[in-house]
Amino acid sequence: MTDNQTLAGKKAVYYTLGCKLNFSETSTVSQILSDAGVSTAAEGEEADICIVNTCSVTEVADKKCRQIIHRLVKEHPHAYVVVMGCYAQLKPEVVANIKGVDVVLGAEQKKDILQHLGALEKKDHGAHFTSRLQDIRSFVPSCSHGDRTRYFLKVQDGCDYYCTYCTIPMARGRSRNGSIASLVKQAQEVAAEGGKEIVITGVNIGDFGKTTGETFYDLVRELDNVEGIERYRISSIEPNLLTDDIISFVANSQRFMPHFHIPLQSGSDEVLHLMKRRYNRALFAHKVEVIKELMPHCFIGVDVMVGNRGETPECFEDAYHFIEGLDVTKLHVFSYSERPGTMALKIPYVVAPEVKHERSERMLQLSDAKQHAFYQHHIGEVMPVLLEHSKTQNVMHGFTPNYIKVEVECKGAYDNVVVPVRLGEFVADGSALKGTML
Ligand code: SF4
Predict the structure, then answer these.
(1) pTM, rounded to two decimals
(2) Residue closest to 225 by CA, chosen among 182, 254, 194
(3) Any atom of ligand 1 within 6 Å of the Cβ of 171
C-alpha cells in the first residue's frame, strides 16, 4: 500500500482509450488519487505517475494502446506507469513486457489502485501483473466528472452474451450492476455538483439487475425522479432488451431525452445468426417503428459492423438495403477485426480488407445522408439547447433533446445553461446547425 505521505504533492497524467465506460472508470481512479493528494500534471509538465486505461475492441485498438504507452514512457521517463483496462486484462504478459511499464492491473484491481503503486519505485523490466478473469466479480461504481455538463454514470459492467466476434466478456467478466439506491445517490451527487446531463452507461445495460434482482426499467423510473438532472440519455442498449415499456416511459418522461443508440451490427439475418446475436432484423425494425410512432423526432443511432466473417456480397447487399429502409438517424460503422480466442474465427468465409473498406465507405455515406436529412427536417424549429463549455470566444456548441448539434453565437457565459434556440442552416462542414438564441 502506498501511503498518502508518499503520494502527497505528486503529479499524474491519465490517458483513456475506448468507450465511455473506460472514461468514467478513469475518472474514478483520478478521484481516488486526488483524494490521496495527487494532482493532475499540466500540459508539458513531467508526471510522477502515468495511468493508461486501455481498450481492446480491435487489433487497431491494441496497437494504439502500445503506441500510447511507449509515448507516455518517453515523455515521462521517471514516472511510475500503471496500465489497466481491457487490453491489460486480455494481454497482461504483453503489456507487462513493454519497457517502462511498472504494473498491469486487472479489471478487479482498478478500484484498489493505491495498493498497487508500490511506493512508486520503478521496475527495471518485467512489470508485475494482476489480471485474472475468474477474479472479475465486483461492480466498481464510476461516474465521470470530466466536463461539468455531461456525466457518464456506469450502472452495469460485463456481459453474459458471448457474441461470436466479441472479446468483451473475456475482458470485463460476467454481467453485474450497482443497486438502484446507490445509482440514484450518485445521480443526486451529480445534481448537487451542478451537473445537468447524465448518460447511463454500461457494457450491456439492458441486462441491468442480474446482481440485485432489479430491472433496467425500474432504474430508469427511479432516476427520473432525481431533482436537478435535466437530461438523461441511455447509451447503447441491445434491441432485444429495449422493451416497449422502456420506450413508452422515455416518450412520456420530461427528463429522458428522445435519443436511443441501438446496436444492430448486421441487417442480414444470416450474419446475425453467425454472430449469435439474440434478435433478428424484424425485431429491430419493430423497435424502430415503436420508437418513431411515439417519438417521430427521436434520434436513433445504430451500430453497424461490416466485413464480418460469413458476410458474402449477397449478405452485405441484403443488409445494406434493410438499413437503407430503416428510419434511423446515424450509423456508427465498424469494420470487423479478427480477435484471438473468439468463436467467429471458426467461420470459414473471410472478407478481404479492401472489400471491408469499400463496405465501410458505403455505410458511412448512407449514414451521412440519413443524418443530413434528419437535421434538415428540423431547420426552423425552436428547441432547448444545453450549451457546453467552449474555448472559442462568442461561439458555443450544444445539443437539442434529440441530439442535434447546434452552434450558437453568444455574448457572455452560457456554460451548462439550457437556452431556447431557433435552428438555422448547416455550418460550413455540415456537422451542426447554426442556431439563434431567443
Ligand atoms: S452483447 Fe455481444 S457485442 Fe455486446 S458486449 Fe456482450 S458479447 Fe460483446
Answers:
(1) 0.90
(2) 254
(3) no
